[in-house]
Specification:
Helix content: 25-40%
Distance between the termini: 55 Å
Bound molecules: aspartic acid
CATH superfamily of the largest domain: Bira Bifunctional Protein, Domain 2
Shape: globular
Largest sheet: 8 strands, mixed
Structural class: alpha+beta
CATH topology of the largest domain: BirA Bifunctional Protein, domain 2
Strand content: 15-25%
Length: 580
């Protein structure tokens, strides 16, 4: 089909040229005897004018018809500054109706007001919206840059099985029944973790894969049951080697997509410090307002609430917001109170305000003058400052204040939306206690190496074993996780034991993997970068469905193909499955 130009690329430099364009009708307007049609292709939209002699040929044309138009590019008498092609238009000389379209069930426009469920049902039409096309192109670009950078660094892309044994990442597996071996199942990979480690044992040294991962979890807003990782593993390096590769990769991606220059090396912070200062393992570093521990000021307090918290080994923490006291009335503060009580199990939220040189607020009365002076001094309080205070267990104080910090950061517009702040969080705890299972479980996955100096605490003090796991955080999002792995069979067996996995059970689940360790396993480590998260950040959207071509709803339904769905009895019979 003849086509000389892409619609969105035409500019005033093309004026006078005869061009042939194709595309979908985005909008049509009649003006007296003239017809104007905005014609859309993937590159953008251009206005086409049909004069008296041509108008009759587009009489029947409606939105989403496909046209091929030949005409002359001319300057517009009324330029449209909101359109990339707004200075010009095409005066049509020839038009072919390539295909007709029924009235679309959704509004195809960036600011479409059609509900999301309907748009997902007609996703192929929804994907015609320029914003989604832009996101798909962005995602593609990220992958292209990743492939190029990693190739240059000597990484090779290797595909690993989708039909596989279960890989433990802490989620539920999607299972696939075997036809040939009735009663046996594959698990879709939660990540290629075991395979990429086997590739290191296999001597591949540097591996990557743009890998699909599957996790059967209850979905949250930024999750999908299947998602993609830029999955990387390398031998003979340590944290510095892995971080260097990822930093170079991020620099190339940010430069190549949004033209942003990242700093050479990203800040690093141990998990413990991160929790203490920001109350979360994914802090948004675009603004300050760190958590400050006031416990020391109240060692001898007679204020009963603080006294009992401190006696019970709790802490008193606060976050200060400068010049914000007048923005939070009683009602506003009550809302924050509810937020920390219900969301974070905090017993209460107290506050102090500096008003005309005097400290007021919910705990101004019970505190002694000396204590108030000490607080003012420590926090360097000025007029109109607001201080939110929580006294509770360290975990509750941190998580509640961390969440308040982010909430007020948004409410008070403290966040500079134009910057990207990366942070490596290191030294994660090796284990988490699972109340549900009544045992310690691996906080990352069970192949993560403990810090060497903590190995002797594996059984005696599992709570305080740090691991060589790390996350990369960007503007409050966890962008990737990874770790240096265990490469020693004995240590691997000990870690299994520490999480209550008997050798028998471990053998049953990944005996093949344990066996492989016996034949010369190189030290190795890697990361899995969440491609959707990365694309979301670069696209500036909070909705993961904006960066996935065919996403599911939050309840894991594909509304377009209506899956999951029932299958024929015959198919079940072949698989030896009967539905309860
Ligand atoms: N497999 C890990 C994950 O999916 C990433 C890694 O450790 O490389 O989180």
């Amino acid at each position: 089909m003849e086509r000389t130009h892409e619609n969105g690329t035409l500019r005033k430099e093309n004026a006078g040229q005869t061009v042939t364009v194709v595309g979908w009708v985005n909008k049509r307007r009649n003006l007296g005897s003239l017809v104007f049609i905005d014609l859309r292709d993937r590159s953008g939209i251009v206005q086409i004018t049909f004069d008296e002699t041509m108008a009759s040929q587009v009489q029947e044309v409606r939105n989403e018809y496909i046209l091929q138009v030949t005409g002359t590019v001319q300057m517009r008498s009324n330029p449209n500054p909101n359109m990339a092609t707004g200075e010009i238009e095409i005066l049509a000389q020839k038009v072919t109706i390539v295909n007709r379209a029924e009235t679309a069930p959704i509004v195809i426009a960036d600011d479409s007001d059609t509900g999301e469920d309907t748009r997902l049902k007609y996703r192929y039409l929804d994907l015609r919206r320029p914003v989604l096309q832009k996101n798909m192109i962005l995602r593609h670009k990220i992958c292209m840059i990743a492939r190029q950078v990693l190739d240059e660094k000597g990484f090779i892309e290797i595909e690993t099985p989708i039909l596989a044994r279960s890989t433990p990442e802490g989620a539920r597996d999607y299972l696939v029944p075997s036809r040939i071996y009735n009663g046996k199942f594959w698990a879709l990979p939660q990540s290629p973790q075991i395979y990429k480690q086997l590739l290191m044992i296999a001597g591949m040294e540097k591996y990557f894969q743009i890998a699909r991962c599957f996790r059967d979890e209850d979905l949250r807003a930024d999750r999908q049951p299947e998602f993609t990782q830029i999955d990387i593993e390398m031998s003979f390096g340590d944290e510095n080697t892995v971080f260097g590769v990822v930093e170079d990769l991020m620099k190339a991606i940010f430069k190549g997509t949004v033209g942003y220059d990242l700093e050479d090396h990203f800040v690093r912070m141990p998990w413990e410090e991160c929790m203490r200062r920001y109350g979360t393992d994914k802090p948004d570093l675009r603004f300050g307002n760190e958590i400050i521990d006031l416990s020391g000021l109240f060692a001898d307090t007679e204020f009963q609430v603080f006294r009992s918290v401190l006696d019970a080994k709790g802490i008193i923490g606060c976050v200060k917001f400068s010049n914000a006291a007048d923005q939070y009335s009683r009602k506003g503060l009550d809302k924050l109170q509810d937020f920390v009580k219900h969301g974070f199990k905090a017993k209460a939220l107290a506050y102090l305000k500096m008003e005309n040189g005097t400290l007021t607020g919910s705990i101004a009365k019970p505190l002694s003058d000396a204590e108030k002076a000490a607080v003012c001094d420590k926090l360097q309080l000025q007029d109109n400052d607001l201080v939110l205070v929580i006294a509770d267990t360290p975990r509750i104080v941190q998580s509640a204040l961390g969440a308040l910090r982010v909430r007020l950061g948004h409410e008070l517009n403290l966040i500079d939306e134009s910057v990207y702040k990366f942070l490596w969080v290191t030294d994660f705890p090796m284990f988490e206690y699972s109340e549900e299972e009544n045992r310690w479980v691996a906080a990352h996955h069970p192949f993560t190496a403990p810090k060497e100096e903590d190995v002797d605490k594996l059984f005696s003090d599992p709570e305080h074993v740090s691991s060589r796991a790390y996350d990369l955080v960007l503007n409050g999002y966890e962008l990737l996780s990874g770790s240096i792995r265990i490469h020693d069979q004995e240590l691997q067996e000990k870690v299994f034991e520490a999480i209550g996995l008997t050798m028998e059970k471990a053998r049953e689940r990944f005996g093949f993997f344990l066996d492989a360790f016996r034949y010369g396993t190189p030290p190795h480590g890697g990361v899995g970068i969440g491609l959707e998260r990365l694309t979301m950040v670069l696209a500036g959207t909070d909705n993961i469905r904006d960066v996935v071509a065919f996403p599911t709803t939050n309840s894991s339904l594909d509304l377009m193909s209506e899956s999951p769905n029932v299958v024929d009895q015959a198919q079940l019979d072949i698989l030896g499955i009967s539905i309860k």
